[in-house]
Amino acid sequence: MTPAGAAPPFSQWERTVAARYLLAKKSQGGVALISIISFVGIMLAVAVLIIVMSVMNGFRTELLGRILGFQGHLYVTGPMLDTSARDEAVRRIRAVPGVVQAIPVIEAQAMALGPAQITGAVVRGITPADLRDTKIVSGNITSGSLNGFGVGDYGGDEVIVGSRLAQALGLRAGDDLTLISPTGGATAFGATPQRKTYTIGGTFTVGMSQYDQAYIYMPLTQAQIFFGREDTVDVIEAKVIDPDRAAAMKTTVQQAAGPAAIVTDWTQRDSSFWGALKVERNVMRLILMLVVAIAAANIISGLVMLVKNKGRDIAILRTMGAGQGSILRIFFMAGASIGVLGTLAGLAIGVLFCAFIGPIQDLVEWVTGATVFSNDVYYLSHIPARVDWREVSLITAVSLGLAFVWTLPPAWRASRLDPVEALRYE
Q: Which residues are within 8 A (CB) of 137 and not within 5 positions of it... i.e. 6 or more apart?
């Protein structure tokens, strides 16, 4: 309990003294310059940590949305792909709670020939209805249309081509595209390459160069003929509401597909890529947390000098009745206020930078005349930023905690200062 007539902890007079010490001029024994350096260091460290982690979160979210929007979340293989039971398995998978799409797919490689260019391509055989339901493709048609896709005998002769692939081949919507399959029709001498000319019904772009410059969509029936698949498909791709729960839904989807079905999820298919992204994110967070710790450590040097310069004042306060706890709290508030203000300023700068990262990127590119974020390298045309408020809260808490911890040793030393020793040589 606080004695009668004594001021409570963190009272007005303690806060006033702490503020006066922190803002005192050099001639008065203050350490304003060191305080400013500590403030700026913490502010920049927190801001950089929030910006970097937000960009990495945005990068993962964009990649996840585009990759999993283009492909699937769960992949079902097994004997049901080669029989008439495939349609029934697809129907049962679609009926699983949480599954939003289940489509049979053929995916194979082919050579694509243009007027003066030849390149490899990945052909995806898919039904017209399923292609229209794949919004990341059907909703991003840059030229032509899907009207003729799947129209005609055996699926017709129209294909949908990635915009970058069409550009590399020197072709546009309406032009002819020749494809060569390494495994086409079967003969008495084995499988022979298949060559056929198709019409480009339209081009698409999903904003990722690895898809825009490599993929071709072909009607499923036509793909079965062109690649010699007869009535089979390569896989049933299923998409779920929450991709992060795909692994937990494997057992349910496997039961729906049939006892012999083999189900894998997207984390297994691209495990090395997603694993590397996760490790990079964790390591970057650790490194930048160390930067915050180093910046917060500057508080110690400033507070140690402040305690040394204010030894006479501490002795006078003690002789006037101030207890050790009051002295400790005064210097604790003087140091902690630097950490609090620096953290809040860094928080504001980091969040505002992420909110306006698009205009900032445009300004930098306009000033420098260089492309800051090339989609040929990073798969995306702009710098993504997604602020995760849980992570921001963690960063803020860690920064404040470090500032408080670094403040305690010199504040404790000030509270243990002997008034007699401090005044002996005054």
A: 70, 131, 160, 204, 206, 217
